[in-house]
Design goal:
Helix content is about 70%, strand content about 0%. The chain has 16 helices and no strands. The chain has helices spanning about 25-30, 40-50, 55-65, 70-75, 80-105, 110-125, 135-150, 155-180, 185-195, 200-205, 205-210, 215-220, 225-250, 255-265, 270-300, 305-335. α5 packs antiparallel against α7. The longest helix has about 35 residues, at about 270-300.
């Protein structure tokens, strides 16, 4: 099987996007940017995946660059210090590998292995230093990335991140049970679950170390700021559903907005695709409106004090990166080998994964 194409210059994409997935407003109104650290980021994350044994050397060599995991983060967290971006990129790469392990544990009927992993991740999240040398590379890699993320802001941010990711782990467990039982969640239930499995609030939390500032509650809970953050994540989740629908139908998935619409709303495949597309478009349009409101809010925070200026600047930086998420997600889905299902020998088995669980062959 040929390797996925390696990324060369993701700031100037030259991919052909199918008309059904093309979003002219993203290409026109959300110019793509890339963190200048990206080439080094790609190199170091590739080395980290090898060091932590999260992918085998042959799969790292053949697929890691073409999966574009570092491109996704380098197009999102602009302005982040290099060490912050590196920690986020490694954590993001770990997240994709974890997602693949979760999928393989379901496909190969390994509920005990999944339960053990779930419990270990909960424990490592609360005490990552104790799990840096765990025998399961997925646990050790998680502990390493979390410990690094915990070093940037402080105890309150760390506690919030942990609380949010405990909820993500539990949501993955709900997905495991749904898929094992063949349960397709209803639309509203699915949307609630998706906000957790897509880790909406984790990626939003990470805007803060990227901006070098922990935001006060009054900022994070501001209705416009929170709405802008949610819309950027909803766009990403729904666009992912739109692009991954063929892969997930091939893999007997039950968690996709399109699958829920077909099963519970009686829509045809074509109608479900149109409805996901409508939600994607509406998220973009609404973000453009609320973005202006957040800009005014950020300006109002600058009261002339040092703290006011810092908070205003951080809110503006976070908003800029919410905007970057749209273009980064959009191009990622057309450049990453993760979605090139038609090129796989087996449409239900990604070529870049290992099928064994920890300790199994």
């Amino acid at each position: 099987m040929p390797a996925f194409p390696h990324s060369t210059s993701p700031a100037t994409p030259a991919v052909a996007i199918p008309p059904s997935l093309a979003l002219p407003v993203i290409e026109a109104a959300f110019p793509r940017q890339l963190h200048p650290y990206w080439p080094r980021l790609q190199e170091k994350t590739r080395a980290w995946l090898l060091e932590k044994r999260l992918m085998t050397p042959d799969k790292v060599a053949e697929y890691a660059d073409g999966l574009c995991y570092t491109d996704l983060m380098a197009g999102y967290y602009l302005g982040a210090p290099d060490d912050v971006l590196q920690a986020i990129a490694d954590y993001s790469a770990w997240f994709f590998v974890w997602d693949d392990r979760h999928d393989r544990d379901i496909v190969h009927g390994r509920p005990a292995a999944w339960r053990q992993l779930k419990d270990l991740l909960h424990s490592a999240l609360d005490a990552p230093g104790l799990y840096l040398h765990h025998r399961d590379p997925l646990v050790a890699g998680f502990a390493d990335s979390v410990l690094r993320l915990y070093s940037f802001l402080g105890r309150r941010w760390n506690a919030r991140f942990a609380r949010h990711f405990h909820a993500v782990i539990d949501a993955y467990d709900r997905e495991f049970r749904n898929r094992t039982n063949g349960t397709v969640p209803k639309v509203e239930e699915y949307l609630e679950l998706r906000r957790l499995t897509f880790a909406h609030w984790i990626w939003t939390d990470l805007l803060e170390p990227s901006a070098g500032c922990e935001l006060p509650n009054m900022v994070r809970k501001n209705s416009a700021f929170r709405r802008a953050a949610l819309l950027s994540q909803e766009f990403a989740a729904w666009y992912n559903d739109l692009c991954s629908l063929p892969k997930e139908i091939a893999g007997d998935e039950v968690h996709n907005l399109g699958i829920s619409l077909i099963r519970h709303e009686g829509l045809t495949l074509e109608e479900a695709i149109a409805e996901i597309r409508r939600r994607v478009d509406s998220a973009v349009i609404e973000f453009l409106a609320v973005e202006q409101e957040v800009c005014r809010f950020a300006a109002s925070l600058d009261d002339g004090s040092v703290r006011g200026k810092e908070t205003s600047r951080a809110v503006s930086a976070c908003l800029d990166n919410m905007r970057n998420w749209f273009s980064s997600v959009y191009w990622f889905h057309h450049e990453s080998g993760r979605y090139m299902v038609d090129n796989w020998d087996d449409r239900s088995t990604p070529p870049y994964v290992n099928n064994e669980a920890a300790g199994e062959k």
